[in-house]
């Protein structure tokens, strides 16, 4: 689900729609009605953890955020400026990574800016385990950090 933040219309009929994601869903079936695409969906929410699992998740969350922030700040100024212009600044780290049913906003921001193929991105987007999503982001960050010329 997307929230429309802004729409710019151009004289030739084109438009640019600025949106932000609100919630994830999986399409169970789809069709058409009165010329409109329709679908039956199932909302996706992260599975919550407690106790020692939560403490471990919090440590992982903080470590991956710091790694992601470090990667972003190490980018060349022109690339960083393009990302900031298009996606805005990286969202701040939440004190409780489970406060949203979809997990921390910064994870979604990172998935949008990391150089990932669509299939890999979709796999991570569909995860309902924040721990698994954080591990996946960590692996991608390790790959892009070590691949970049020094």
Concise structural overview:
This protein is α+β, with helices and mostly antiparallel strands.
Characterization of the model:
Helices cover 46% and strands 23% of the residues. With 150 residues, the protein is α+β, with helices and mostly antiparallel strands. The chain has 2 domains: 42 residues, no CATH class; 102 residues, no CATH class. The strands form 2 sheets. It has a two-stranded antiparallel ribbon with strand order 1-2. A two-stranded antiparallel ribbon has the order 3-4. Helix 1 packs parallel to helix 5. The protein is globular, with a radius of gyration of 18 Å.
Feature tags:
single chain, 2 domains, two-stranded antiparallel ribbon, 4 strands, 46% helix, Lon N-terminal domain-containing protein, ubiquitin protein ligase activity
Instruction: State the helical fraction.
Output: 40-55%
Number of helices: 5
N-to-C order of helices and strands: EEEEHHHHH
What do the pLDDT scores average to?
Answer: 91
Terminal Cα span: 40 Å
How many strands, what sense, and barrel or not for the largest sheet? 2 strands, antiparallel
Overall structural domain count: 2
Q: What's the total count of β strands?
A: 4
Query: Biggest sheet: strands side by side, in what order?
Result: 1-2
Which residues sit in consecutive blocks of at least 5 with pLDDT less than 50?
Answer: none
- Tell me the structural class: alpha+beta
User: Strand share of the residues?
Assistant: 15-25%
* Radius of gyration from the alpha-carbon trace, in angstroms: 18 Å
The coarse overall form would be globular
């Amino acid at each position: 689900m997307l929230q429309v933040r802004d729409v710019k219309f151009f004289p030739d009929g084109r438009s640019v729609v600025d949106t932000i994601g609100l919630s994830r869903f999986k399409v169970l079936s789809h069709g058409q009605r009165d010329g409109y695409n329709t679908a039956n969906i199932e909302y996706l929410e992260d599975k919550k953890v407690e106790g020692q699992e939560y403490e471990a998740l919090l440590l992982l969350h903080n470590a991956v955020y710091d790694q992601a922030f470090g990667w972003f700040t190490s980018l060349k100024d022109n690339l960083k400026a393009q990302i900031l212009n298009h996606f805005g600044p990286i969202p701040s780290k939440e004190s409780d990574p489970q406060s949203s049913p979809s997990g921390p906003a910064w994870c979604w921001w990172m998935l949008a800016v990391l150089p990932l193929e669509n299939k890999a991105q979709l796999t991570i987007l569909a995860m309902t385990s924040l721990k698994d999503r954080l591990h996946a982001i960590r692996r991608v960050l390790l790959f892009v950090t070590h691949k970049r010329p020094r």
